[in-house]
Amino acid sequence: MWGSYRKKHKCKSGNAKYRRDGNRGLARLTVRAKPGNPSRGLLDAGGVVFPCALGRGGISSRKREGDGATPLGAMRLRSGYFRADQTAARHARLKMTPIDGGLGWCDRPDDRNYNRPVRLPYRGSHEDMHRADRLYDVCIVLDWNIVPRQRGRGSAIFFHLARPGFTPTQGCVAVTARVMARLLPRLSSRTVLEVKR
Q1: Is the CB of residue 188 less than 8 Å from the CB of residue 19?
Q2: Fewer CB within 10 Å: C terminus or N terminus of the chain?
Q3: What pTM does this model have?
Q4: Which amino acids are annotated catalytic?
C-alpha cells in the first residue's frame, strides 16, 4: 500500500517542497486546532497542511484520564502498530508491530500496567487494539505519560486513522488513511508531534 500510493497519487504543484525532500524524514509535525472548531485540527508536515481530528475535549494543558482532550505539548513518536490483515508497513522507519486479537492497552489509572500494552483477556479496564472500525489499521504511539507515568494523566494517546468526517477522538490526533500512507515513510523515532494552541 505505502509504496504504490506514492506512485499513484502525484503531489500537486503546491506541494513542490514535499516532492523535493520526499526521501528525507520529518523532524516535526505541528498540530493546531481549526479556528472555531476545537475538535478539528490542521497538521503541518514540512510545510504541507492536512486536516486532522482532535479530542472531543479540544486541546488541554491539563490532560486527565477520560476528559477526551488532546494534550498540549511536544510528543516524540515512539513506535507503531498496524493491522497486517488490512494494510502493510513495509516502508516505515518506525518500529511497527502487527496487531492481533490479543493486543490491548490498559487505561485504568490504578493498574500497574496503566498506559501500557497488555495481552487479552485482561481483567483491568483496557482498550482493544484490534478494532472493527479500522481506526488502528495504522496506530503510532506518542510518548505522552509513558516515562515517567503519572496516575490519571492520560493513556493511549496515539496518532491514528480518522473516522469519516473527522469526528472527534478520545484525545488522539487522527488523519485519513491516504495522509497516513503519505507520511509514514517519513516518520521516525526522531519525529516530534507538537500540539499547539
Answers
A1: no
A2: C
A3: 0.88
A4: 160, 172
